[in-house]
Request: fold
Amino acid sequence: MGRRILLIASPKSDKIPYSLQRFLILRIEPNNREAIDFALDQLLSAPPELSAKENLKPYTFTTRGLADDTVNQLLSRLSLALGPGTERELEKIVSEALRLSGADIVVESPQKDIGADLAVWSDVLEPFVGNPFLIEIKRKVSDKYTAATTFKQLQSYLGASDTKWGMLLYGEGPPPEDRLWQACPPNILLMPIRQLLEALHNQAFPEIVRDLRNRRVHSVRP
Reply:
């Protein structure tokens, strides 16, 4: 009937039937008010579902890089946020950048630890990583313990919503090819925030995600 549906399932329940996996799914207890509030924000912000006929249309990218002044302003704010700033400020910077560069809908988590920091919808992302695309943001990742803990946390968010792909953006840490990231799950994309902002000068966000995903799928990790 065209109604938007939020499916709540017990964390201990069996795998969600395939026919229901197109809905936004939360694996939580029904008294988890904060998680439900966040999910409802995601649901109400999501663009309308495409019809089966529309889904058959090929997706085309229209490159919409950010202007020099915009990128420079975002990079300056990033430098300040990595000083005395907080992760919340990093989330605002990333959220603004994504809205300016090809993400249809960006929803920020109202509180920490009730879900991924950002949930992104984009029609052109759907064939590659699905919707919503969850993003976790960390100010600094410098050791294997922090990396493993962050991966586990993001994987739990993906599992709770039956979302297939996520992304970790970090302010300070080694490059994605460093051995520190060896334990990164195959369905999580990695990128420093500064590298993302610089890439947005020439590419729209969905293009960046598509390219990272393709490299992730086709590369052989050491």
